[in-house]
Structure formats: structure tokens, C-alpha cells
Model the fold of this input.
Amino acid sequence: MATETLIVVSPPEEPAVLEPISTKDVLSGLDGVFPMDEAVVEALPQGSTFLSAEPFGTSAWTVTGKVMAREPDGTEKAYFLKIAYGEHGGVMLKGEFESAKEIYRLMPGFIPQPFAYGRYKVSNPVPYFYLSEFIDMDITTAPDPGEFATKLAELHKKSESPTGKFGFHVVTCDGKMPHTVDWQDSWAVFFGRLLQGICKIDRETNGPWPEMERATEQLITKVIPRLLGNLRHDGEPIKPCIIHGDLWEPNLGINLETGELMMYDVGSYYAHNEMDLGQWRADFCSHLRSPIYPRQYLRHYPAAEPAEEFDDRNRLYSLKGTINYSAGHPGCIVRQTAYNNMCYLCEKYAPIDGIDKYDPQKDPSVTGARLVPTFTKPDDEVSP
Done:
């Protein structure tokens, strides 16, 4: 049964908040009333009549719910609503909305339809919202490798950067962590800036680690230019492709009505297509760590040249996801995994003193060790 819906008017606006506000703090003051607003009602498709809203799912940085509306033909339809607080919350949701629009335009069956992004009329604290199609999904079943590979490769191939460069037109996020997405002609330069940005956030969260900082600098100045500076595909420079930006199991689901695989919770940018595969190597992935997934993908979108360096690029690309996870989970072991992978890449491509030797026993891709996340899927279009 839906909870009571709250419609409010605007008090004076507060100063901008640069960090997302904890939903725990916000919800504690709502006395169980779902934070609905007239701005969402107005954002419903034309002809829809708002009926109710209720909580759906839980999240550390957003409030999530299901909105019911009556369509012009008299049927009822559900919408998915995500709310974030503070100016950074607005950045998060605008980035997701713009990302979803790009993917939906290319492959409408691969992501829930995005409808609106906006700001509540109440502003104490400032809430922003993202409204999309509501789809019940099974997120417990492993994606079919063939279907997943086919759809993901199709998305990558269909996409065309509007500028011909790597980047995105708005800031997007992985969780609450912002991506550095300024347009760049060079993929090596773009990836170096992206990695540098998340390493800075990780250092601020987890504290200094001189050896890791030395390895990071060596990666950015020596290894990345060597590995990414002259990539080719069919003899031509690699093209920028739209990517999911946080592609792992909790952001994939099977539509319970159609049986089709879908993605969601996107934080996209135009990148080397192999970037989407990097996170599958991470400690916290499960099904996607099986070699069948990259192998199936490479059947549809072959590795860039030099193809023999695909696995080293995959290791390099995995750093962004693991360090992002480390920044969001202070003290987590994935920071050690990321550092160990840095040591491997430095040893192989640009040896340097003052860092540790790569240890295969600390490499989950060797040992098979897996970190089981301490949270369930926090938000989005999943079945209760």
C-alpha cells in the first residue's frame, strides 16, 4: 500500500551544498512520509494523472520510490523516482539523466526510458529528482553471456561522440564520485585525468599512501601514454564510444515481463569501448569475472591493436572502478588490489624505485578471491 504523499511549498533557498546529503539524515525528519513534490507531478508525461507515491528500495545517497499515475486511456502506470539532496545530488542525477537519454536514444530496449530531471519546489535542503520508466527486474540471475555481449557491443558500435572527442557534456558520477569528463582529443590524456581525479578523492578519503601516489604518478606520466597513446582499430584510431560508466552486476537486470537484459544506474561518457569491461575484473564483481563475458564481447567487437595488450589494458581500466569503490568504502581491501595492479603495470612498462613488487597472491584475477559487498543493491528498478 502506498504511504501518504507530501506536497509542499518552497521556503527560502539554502546555500549550495557541495557534498550529497545523507538520506538517513533527511528521512529521519520525514516521519515516514515519502518526499513527493509538485515538480514531479508536473514532470509526468502529458495527460497522466498522479495517483500515489511510495518508497521503493534503499540507498545511501538517494531516496527511491515508485510513483503511480493514471494514463489517458484509464490504465495505471508505474514510474521510478530517484531523489538526491544538495547541489552535488543535482549533479549526480543530471548526469544519470543525460547518460540514460544518450543510451535510450541508441537502444531503447536496453535501458528504462528516462522521462525527466528537475528540482523540487521545496528547498530545505535542496532536492533534485530523476524520473524514469519503472521496470520490475531480476538481478539475481547471471546475464546470458551471448545476449549481454551482443547488446553491449551494439551500443558501443552505434554511438558517435557529438564532438568527435572523449568526454561528456555534463559531469557524470559513479555512485557519489564525480567523473572528470572534460572533452579531450586524446584517450590517453582523458583516461589519465579520469584516473587522477578518482585517486585524489580516494586519497582524501583514505589518507596518504606515498608508494601508491608514486605508482599513480608513474602510471599517468609513463604507463598510460605507452599503453593507450596509439591504439588502433582496423588500422584506424579508436573511436569514442558511449559507455555505461559503472558496469557490474547490480546495474544489470532481466526484465520480468519480457525476459530481456537491461542496464541502468548509468554514469556515462565517451570512452574507449574496452573501458566498460574493466570493472569486470574487480574484486567485488561476481558473474562478470568469468572469462566467458569478455571472450563473448570480443567476438562482436574485437580488441584494439595491439590486441596482445588487451589484458594489460583491462587491468589498467579496472583501476578506475576499484579506486572508486575504495573511495566510497574507507578501509576496504580493494585499495590494496588497485595498488598491486599499479605495481604490475609499472614493473612491466615503466619500472621505478620506491614502490612494492607485484604480488600475484594479492591479485584476485590470479587467486579467484572475491570481495562480497556489504550492501544489497541500493536503488533503482529492481523487484522488492
Notes: The CA atoms of residues 25 and 60 lie 10 Å apart.
